[in-house]
């Protein structure tokens, strides 16, 4: 083979190789692939009732970390009568769930009512409340509690005189400050 033919063949092969590489380079796209559009978050519905300001079905975007407190907040928050300790506000939520926020127990309500009237309910007051009465220390308050527990509660305010250490004089200072 002559040198001339060799150079022509080499030139042709080189051009074909360069053309192929050029075409391959053109077909390669340096632009990154398009990201699919973000899918909207799924919504869940939760029925919130009981001691919330707006009993309703609330819709929340499910970000994977929804908690009961989120639904309660969308329902306007808790009422003053709500017993927040009776529910787990950090519990996770699921679609279609019904959450009922209970009210505080009646005995707690009677304490509030008696506090509003400036009288202490001797059947429900704790040792600290009883000790706020003039002439009643923590030892006497404990005796009042012991008496009501042993006798099923006070039937009348006059029964306070049955507690050791409460005579007529002390009773006279207490009778207008207590209730049953």
In short:
The protein has 180 residues and is an alpha/beta fold. The chain has helices at 3-27, 68-74, 106-116, 127-130, 138-151, 168-174, and strands at residues 43-50, 56-61, 97-101, 120-121, 178-179. The termini are far apart.
How would you portray this structure in words?
The chain is of the alpha/beta class and 180 residues long. It is 38% helix and 13% strand. Strands 2-1-3 form a 3-stranded mixed sheet, covered by helices on one side. Strands 4-5 form a two-stranded parallel ribbon. The longest helix has 25 residues, at 3-27. The chain is rod-shaped. The model is unreliable at 112-116 (pLDDT under 50).
Question: Could you list some keywords that capture this structure?
Answer:
180 residues, alpha/beta, 38% helix
Number of strands: 5
- Distance between the terminal alpha carbons, to the nearest Å? 125 Å
What are the secondary-structure elements, in order, as H or E? Answer: HEEHEHEHHHE
Number of helical elements: 6
Calculate Rg over CA atoms: 40 Å
Mean pLDDT: 82
The proportion of residues in beta strands is 5-15%
Structural class: alpha/beta
Approximate helicity band: 25-40%
How are the strands of the largest sheet arranged? 2-1-3
**Could you give a short account of the major beta sheet?**
3 strands, mixed
Silhouette: rod-shaped
Low-confidence stretches: 112-116
What are the SSEs and their pairings?
Layout: H1 3-27, E1 43-50, E2 56-61, H2 68-74, E3 97-101, H3 106-116, E4 120-121, H4 127-130, H5 138-151, H6 168-174, E5 178-179
Parallel strand pairs: 1-3, 4-5
Antiparallel strand pairs: 1-2
